[in-house]
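Case 732 in the screening queue. Each case pairs one protein sequence with one candidate compound; here the compound is zinc ion. For every case the pipeline is the same: read the inputs, emit a complex structure as tokens, and attach any notable structural observations.

Predict complex for case 732.
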Amino acid sequence: MLFDDLEDDTETIASVLVPVAVPTAYTYRVPKGAHVCPGTIVKVPLGPREVIGAVWDVTPDAGINPKKLKEISRIFEETRPLDAELRQFIDWVANWTLAPPGMVLRMVLRSEEALEPETPIAGVRRLAGMEPDRKTPARARVLETMEDGFAWTKSGLSHAAGVSVSVIDGLLKQGVLEVVEMPAAPPLPKPDIDYARVDLTETQKKAADGIRAAFEKGASVSLIDGVTGSGKTEVYFEAIAEALKRGKQALILVPEIALTEQFLRRFEQRFGVYPAEWHSEITPKKRARVWRGVASGDVRVVIGARSALFLPFLELGLIVVDEEHDTAFKQDDRVPYSARDMAVVRGHISKFPVVLASATPSVESRVNAEQGRYNRFILPDRASGAALPDLQAVDMRAEGPERGRWIAPPLLNAIRSAFADGAQSLLFLNRRGYAPLTLCRKCGHRFQCPHCSAWLVEHRFQKRLNCHHCGHSESVPEACPSCSSTDSLVACGPGVERIAEEVSGLFPEARTLVLSSDIQGGPDRLRREMKVVEEGGADIVIGTQLVAKGHNFPKMRLVGVIDADLGLAHGDPRAAEKTFQLLAQVTGRAGRVTGDGAGFLQTYAPDHPVIKALLSSDRDAFYNAEIEARQATGLPPFGRLAALVISGPDKAFTEGYSRAILRTAPMHEAITILGPAEAALAMVRGRHRYRLLALAPRQIDLQGYIRAWLSEAPKPVKGLRVQIDIDPQHFM
Ligand code: ADP
Ligand code: ZN
Ligand code: ZN
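Case 732 output:
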């Protein structure tokens, strides 16, 4: 026993990773008699505040005088320590993105509420054998309601029995009822893998079998490459069933979580219960429940936005990335990571399969499949047997609409005949608001955001001019702020609201609906409106890219793309790919069930390769040409890209600093550095932005190069910031 005493007296120290931007873990003293291990979640003092961190696998610095060390102030003993695989994943992501590991940990510990056990709520229960002195009708109803012996909340009981709470209080006083603690959240029902199986088609079955077989192999990646409506979802539901059968949890990552009511219902139809949701719109309380449920294993399936990848699953055994090509999986701020790519990493570390699904796979995933790194399952036909929509271009140079209108006659005729037949039409324009630019007809003044190099977008319903980059908003003025003329302001170009106005003028009797992410009433309203469209309650829908993603609108026959050229103008090496994907997805909404779908692409460049590939429905032609071009120029996935975005409050100073950074770039024969160039969005929120771009062959350790480079570069001062973006997806 002497030995135990000795050990208790020994002061121990531990490394704790804290959720701030520092390169490594800090050393803390462990309270006497307490025990921590790698992964233990703790609260520690950090400067003037206390933060939540985790004990990390780093040898603590024993050289520091223990008296100078601060002590861990709290150990969350109720919470399971983060397991070794999750810790390894965090370190891996930090290493890959060059982000401080504490900032990656922060994404795991995002729900502080989750660490506190939920306080039970008070309930009442019948005490056996006790009867009230007088049995009034109200009292009798209460006792009848409670016959099954379960506990009730007071309000629930008063509702169910149709009595006032005072009746219940009276029974409590008499000792007929007693107060008990009830868990705040009832236990979750588990998905039932046999709830409603679907008869898969031959090709779907082959894919499902192939993915099922992958579970035997440990880590693997499968790409379900199938046209819109081919049943990709049904196929990966089988993968989820397999994971559940093996006693594992499953995660489905989707790009636009707020809009998946339809998806949740579909999951329920297959598995009998709703999956847990994880995204920014859910309440902190619900978030905490999901976090705890995932960690304890109570939650078996999560559907979430990209950040769900950092949940502390007890026994994760499958990740599905739906619409894997979507750039919403890329986070651009703080820790710039790609949830799709990091999902593959998480599967690799924990040795489970990852399934990617898309009708328009990313060029990266296509190449990985072609080169044999990923399994590929092709679903060439729609499950309903419906044909893919018939697409045609509207050459706006020859057959465009009159001035001030945006819908060309051929498209207009098609809408007219769809409407006459009681079919739905969708007009797609990836621009929110009424008009992207407002100017003064008299003096030419243009309304620009005071904080960003961007035009203010008119939102006519709200009577406001909004900046879509920083949230700046001002009311539309009566007079021009520059020349004071009144009635001189004109809207230039269309947004969805303006298209809706044109449609209302042309089809006054049609039910039109605008679907855009800034819809008033938030995600709930949006969900409801999606459902309206799904059920045929709208005739003409005008939408932004929201409507392009995965929705099944059975009555949608026609899709008109108002401006097919919109995405092609950027200095973005991925512009062609993104445009192809977006337009293929949005036109894929047409005729999913009926098979008589049609699509119109309004364009000034009908001969552009992207437009031509779309028109001929020749996906392979597009991918082959794009892959060849990437190969020739050494762009991803054949080369590697990293962007350095340098920003600061003063323009000249920021530019000078960017040049100073460039000068310290180590010479490397295989690495090309471009820039510094002013960013396409030269100013955001008052910060001026410059970009450097590093291009390297695939086999080069680009992160290592940049790490060495920045360790030699002058440190940012005076509000300067350097943001590193490995494998950038957005080039603004
Ligand atoms: P995708 O995910 O490829 O767009 P979905 O899985 O949404 O395709 O399938 C499109 C539609 O076809 C859905 O309504 C789905 O229920 C239906 N479907 C898919 N596969 C089958 C099948 N084997 N049997 C019956 N209906 C199916
Ligand atoms: Zn003016
Ligand atoms: Zn702005």
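Case 732 observations:
- The pocket of zinc ion (ligand 3) is lined by residues 449, 451-452, 454, 467, 469-470, 472 (CB under 6 Å).
- The longest helix spans residues 619-633.
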